[in-house]
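Handout, page 2. Input:
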Amino acid sequence: MFGTTLSGADISTLVHVIVAFFIAGTLLFQWRAIHPAVSAAAGAEKVRETIRSHWAPVMRIGMVLLIGTGVYQLMVLGMPKAELQKSSEAAGLSYHMLFGIKFLLAMAILFIGNAMVGKSAALASIREKAPMWLGLACAMVIAVIVISRHLAEMPA
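Output:
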């Protein structure tokens, strides 16, 4: 990949994976390190607000980048795979079905991540039960990674 000129799909994949890595890593770090430590500390609310205010812009930019690069990859890489699968009537799970599951899981992960950095009173109950929601998000991240690898290995 790096010995030649990078294509738009290569650049998109690289951006997508790096941003996903940071968002997923942050969710895991919040779940296993920040929330347990902050919950036990004095002045926990001030610490949470400081973290939230610094991470919120990164999370929102990351969401835009993930959705944008994801749609681009679906169009450039995914659609040819799906067409090949339809034309060859290959056995196995449908590309579109797997992509749809991955997409819905990713949207749920981004929703939880955004709820953690948001200020909305409507999502306060998610922030109050942060360990449960962050644990669920981390489990969904694992499912997205497994599905992504399967999609990437489908013939093009």
